Amino acid sequence: xxxxxxxxxxxxxAFIEIxxxxxxxxxxxxxxxxQISRKLNDAAEESVSQMTADMAQLADExxxxxxxxxxxxxxxxxxxxxxxxNILEAINQENVYGRAGVMDYEGxxxxxxxxxHDFPKLLRAFQGNNVVDYHTDGGIIVAxxxxxxxxxxxxxxxxxxxxxxxxxxxxxxxxxxxxIMIQYKDGSLxxxxxxxxxxxxxxxxxxxxxxxxxxxxxxxxxxKAAAVYTEGSKxxxxxxxxxxxxxxxxxxxxxxxxxxxxxxxxxYQMVQWVFTLMLLLFACVSIYLxxxxxxxxxxxxxxxxxxxxxxxNRAKSQFLANMSHEIRTPLNAINGMDEMILRRSRDxxxxxxxxxxxxASTALLGIINEILDFSKIESGRMExxxxxxxxxxxxxxxxxxVGFRAxxxxxxxxxxxxxxxxxxxxxxxxxxxxxxxxxINNAIKYTDEGTVTFDVGGDIVEDILNLKLVVTDxxxxxxxxxxxxxxxxxxxxxxxxxxKVEGTGLGLAITHRLLTMMGGAVNVSSIYGEGSTFxxxxxxxxxxxxxxxxxxxxxxxxxxxxxxxxxxxxxxxxSILIVDDNEMNCFVATCMLSDTKAKLTVxxxxxxxxxxxxxxxFHLVMTDYMMPGMDGIATLKEAKKIKxxxxxxxxxxxxxxxxGVREKFLSxxxxxxxxxxxxxxxxxxxxxxxxxxxLVHPVVESEAKGxxxxxxxxxxxxxxxGALADKRGEIVHDSTFVDRRMPRIDMSVGLKYxxxxxxxxxxxxxxxxxxxxANIEDMEKSFGAEKWDAYRIKVHALKSGxxxxxxxxxxxxxxxxxxxxxxxxxxxxxxxxxxKAVEYMKQHHEELMAMYRHVAxxxxxxxxx
Length: 865
Description:
The chain is an alpha+beta fold.
């Protein structure tokens, strides 16, 4: 009996335990289901939000694509108004779903007819804005302004009828499960998805769906895209939305829950109903969740790694830029002082040393500049800069640079040059120099004793010289199994034996890529333990009949550097008009050109230049770009209208030396371009190139100026607390403004822009100091009246003047202030950017004015010594 009760008790206990376990598992399963469902829905919402952001970007790009097309057409229309109908026809043919048209201020229309009442935002295009507007019946219109000078003359537009909107802007191809449409800002449907019907209206009118969309719009106040899970009579869905930032449209849509997380549904059912397998299912779900979370973490880690890589790449680029700047600054000073020695010294030994310095520093500066091209080499965007060059000068520069290294290792460096080779060639001399230095330095590095031989020859086929450059060494040679690694990036061969040899393993890889770009090739033969031979073959165009002649690496190369010594020509019959609102710039230009004996006329504004052009003819007009009132481009266009200027050459002078600027000015109609500040030789070169050949007379040796000994101004010394002292140790200037970056006037830089003339440089310093108070007063007036365009132009002039005297700190401060002014007046700047630009100018104005006064006083003190 007891055993039966015991058995019964055990049975009841087991039954109770099973029931309790079942209940626990059921409750646990429901809790887990709810928790898992919530977490998965949250994760799915984030995934759908990201998908929505991608779709919004795609939709925005589609709008911008049509704007870009119209912009390109508007630029062409500005220059070819007579082809208006042809342009409209071309736009219509490019996109058959839209119709193009042109409207002027009076509402006259050519092409597709639209109503300004249906599309009220169309008028904003006449204010210089790009427009995307919508009308429930008319469809979507995209419009851009068409300029005539600085004014908007027409509006070019393309209208897409309502019936074609889905074909043009629909996003059905992004995700086969989602339904995506585009709404206007007032909630009206602009671009429906395909097969949009009454059932779709019923879907969007469902209360649960509406509540989900309310939550989506709420989240959009803090996010660029949002998605919300909804569950109701229509089923389980994710509704989503995102604003299109460059338009008044928004993207909305939905995607079934099953398309995002439908595969999890079977797990829910098993968790809820199959209690006997609950633990196993729990383990499976746990593993699944662990894998899902791991994948999310991995994705996040990948994002962080990508961000870290991007940051590292930016840091590398910034480091290379800073390093290049820091090294080039003293190198420029070396070049400047070396040029002064070449101009002034009569001692032939000193001039020979200076010539070697010139060759070595020029080549070194080229190498430093090429460091910045490494990222271009990695991305395949390396560009060649081809020009006429002297093969003799190239070889002397290379030999000068590598010869010292061979001599330091007590190697015999032999160079054999075919005397019948053409001297004047056309190609990228900088890249060829880099290739030769890489290969010859490589030979010297891996040769401990013996010789390094450099043979220069070639074959002539019509007007092409197949240049053959052979470098042979008696070094360690290359193993046969290492030959295929020779031109790979960062590959070092026989590391154990060559561990003391410096290098990154990039030199030969860069050489191979550069030669491939130039249509050349490099071949290598080597015997391990005996030496190697590198043979470079490179086609170069022949530009003249002069041959290289007998080549002596040790001979004086002064004749190759004669162009840095004195004025190379005179043009007494030529007349030149210099146009610049900056008096000091005019003064420097006239002084630099005074030795040419040309008739020089100065105009301080575009309007004054036009008056001169109406009274007399000029062979050459050199005009500044950024001037108050009428800038350089406007002056050119008006000057071209004046009778008698048909044969006049126009050259633009600008301190804006960015990529593409030269092409911009040449396309505007200028004949040549020169970046400021310029050296005297650069200015003379441009003048000589643009004057009629019959007016240019070479300077014969008897007319050249005698070379004087170098006599430079003493630079002021620095005393405690940053004050300045003269050569006697007395304080020269004690300003109440002491910046953490005290200014310094670098005379080597100033002399470079004054043609290395002490007298001219002193007069420039005097003028800088003399004009400072008037300029400061003008800038203060513009600043106080918040006339930021006028203020920017004055700061631009200060930027140029500061560099003319050699004060880089003041130049950089003015450059930053000018950039803020440009951002304020730019049509592409947002209101927030303009506010920040004004804040920046206001924060740094007093500092800039104080620095200006300080540097002006320094200039005044230097001239009084």
